[in-house]
Amino acid sequence: MPRIVDQGAQIQYRLNSVVYGNGLFVAVGSGGSVLSSPDGVNWTSRDSNTFARLESVTYGNGLFVAAGHDDVDPGVVLTSPDGLEWSADISADYKLLLGVLAGPGLFVAIGQGGIIMTSPDAGVWTMRSKGYYNELRSVISGRGNQGFITVGAAGAILSSPDGRDWVQRVSGIETNLLGIALGNKTFVAVGDNGVILTSPDEVNWTQQNIEPSNRLFAVTHGAGQFVAVGQKGIILTSPDAVDWSIQKSGVFSDLFGVTFGAGLFAAVGDNSTI
Question: DSSP secondary-structure letter at 215?
Fold first, then answer.
C-alpha cells in the first residue's frame, strides 16, 4: 500500500512535478511552491523567490532546475545546487515553458506553441527550430542517456540526438500525451483517456489496452516497474508496460507527477497531495 503524506501546509497548492536527486526529493507547484524532503515523508517548504506556477523540476549536472510561468508576468527558471536555496531568473522567453529536463551535459525545456529551448548551464538558453507548433508536455533522455524525446498535444512525439535537431515520430494516435518515461529498454508515453503507448526504439509505437480511462499525467520507472499516475488519484503499475494493475492510492486528488528515488516512489498532485 502506498504511503500517503500530508505535508501540512496551511495553503493548499497544486503540486505539478517531483524529482529525486543528490539525496533529496523536491516537489514544485502553484504559487511558487517548492518543497524538499530527504526521505519522501517529512517535507519542508522552501523560498522560491517567485509566485509563478511552477510546472516542472529536474536534477542533473549538479543542479536542480524548475520552470514555470504566470498569466501576467514573464516566466521563470529557478536553479539550486542543493534544493534548499533557490535563485530565480525571470524572462519573457520562459513564459511558455511546461517541462524541463537535465540531460547529459544539456538542459532541455519544452512547452506551449511547441517551444524547445536548450542550455548548457540553465542560465543561457537557446531557441531551437523544429517545425512543430502544438503544446509539448514532457521530455526525457533517450536510451543510454543519449539524445532526447518529448511528447505533447495530438499524439506528438519528437526525438533528437542532441537537443538541437528534432524529428517528429508517428504515434498513431491524436490523443494528448502528457508524460513519458524509459525503463527496461522500453519507452512508455501516457496521456488523456488513459492512453498508454510503448516503444522499443522511440520510432515504432504500440497502444496498450487498459480499462481505466482516467487521464494519466505522468509516468516513471524504478525498482523494476513502471508507475503511472493521474486523474482522481489513480495509480497504475506494470513490470513490462503491457499488463497494468490499479493500486489504491487512498486519495481522490489528481496526481500530476511521480518519481523514484532512495527505494521509494513519490507522487504529488492537487491540494498539496504527496
Answer: P
User: 216-222 and 225-230 as β-strands: parallel, antiparallel, unpaired?
Assistant: antiparallel
Tracing cell 518515461 back to the chain, one arrives at 181
Q: Report residue 30 as a C-alpha cell.
A: 502553484
Whole-number Cα distances in Å, 41 to 6, 20, 50:
9, 13, 25
Among 141, 44, 150, which Cα is nearest to 102's?
141
Q: Is 34 helix (H, G, I), strand (E, B) or coil?
A: strand
Burial 90-100 (b: 16+ CB within 10 A, else e): beebbbbbbbb
pLDDT given at position 254? 98
Tracing cell 505533447 back to the chain, one arrives at 152
Q: What integer pLDDT is reported at residue 73 of this predicted model?
A: 67
- Which residue has better confidence, 198 or 210? 198
Segments making up each domain of the chain, as ranges: 15-272
For domain 15-272, which architecture applies? 6 Propeller (2.120)
CA distance 69 to 111: 10
Question: What tens digit of pLDDT does each residue of 213-271 get?
Answer: 999 999 999 999 999 999 999 999 999 999 999 999 999 999 999 999 999 999 999 99
- Tally of CB atoms within 10 A around 123: 13
The span from the CA of 19 to the CA of 39, in Å, is: 12
Quote the DSSP letter at residue 94: G
- pTM value? 0.95
Q: What letter would DSSP give residue 240?
A: S
